[in-house]
Amino acid sequence: MKRLPIYFLGSLFCINGIHGDAQGVSSQKPFELSLSVERHLTSAPPTHLGLVVTFTNTSSETIHETICATAGGLYKLVVGFNGSKLPESDYARKHREDMERGEANGGSCEGTSSQRSILPGESADNTLYYDARKEGTYTFRVERKTFPKDPQQSVIIRSNSVTVVIPEPRKD
Predict the structure, then answer these.
(1) In whole angstroms, what is the distance from residue 100 CA to residue 102 CA?
(2) Residue 86: strand pairing partners
(3) pLDDT by residue (tens digit) across 24-78?
């Protein structure tokens, strides 16, 4: 079996990010998340898998994203390897929690300046990377809180799961 060039990055890097601060959105579930595997990566190392998170605004109001939200830092990547759930790294957890509090980058997430607005029914993509250099079966899912700064009102939205099998290298 030929090894396909599939990529992800273990410490979770994000590009072309999207997240809403969801302020002003009255629904308890103002968005949906879906996850797919990026098939044509050109700039990532060959051991990295790319996951595309599609964020869809299911509310009746526009979701405005802060500069920190557009970096993808509000997503929690849940990873399984050969049937066992892997722990979130301390770095990824701290970075996500800082973003949720709006404290990342020295507090520059605060304010009313929106980097992206997502209209009702519209979607936007964010690519996450994971380092999948070990042969085996990986499962991935992403989670995001609806109102990260308001835990009493917030619920966790979960994406679908995707499975990627990394075969043993061919011995020619």
Answers:
(1) 5
(2) 79
(3) 444 468 999 999 998 766 666 777 889 999 999 999 999 988 766 776 788 999 9
Amino acid at 21: D
Q: How far apart are CA 157 and CA 123, in angstroms?
A: 15
List the structure tokens of 87. Answer: 């722990």
| CATH class entry, domain 14-166 | mainly beta
Sign of the CA dihedral running 64, 32, 154, 28: positive
Answer whether 0.90 is exceeded by the pTM: no
Dihedral Cα 152, 109, 92, 129, nearest 10 deg: 120
Q: What residue spans define the domains of the chain?
A: 14-166
Q: 165 with 137: CB under 8 angstroms?
A: yes
Is 26:59 a contact under the CB 8 Å cutoff?
A: yes
- Ramachandran category for residue 21: left, alpha or beta (phi over 0 → left; psi -120 to 50 → alpha): alpha
User: For residues 51 and 99, is the Cβ–Cβ distance under 8 A?
Assistant: no
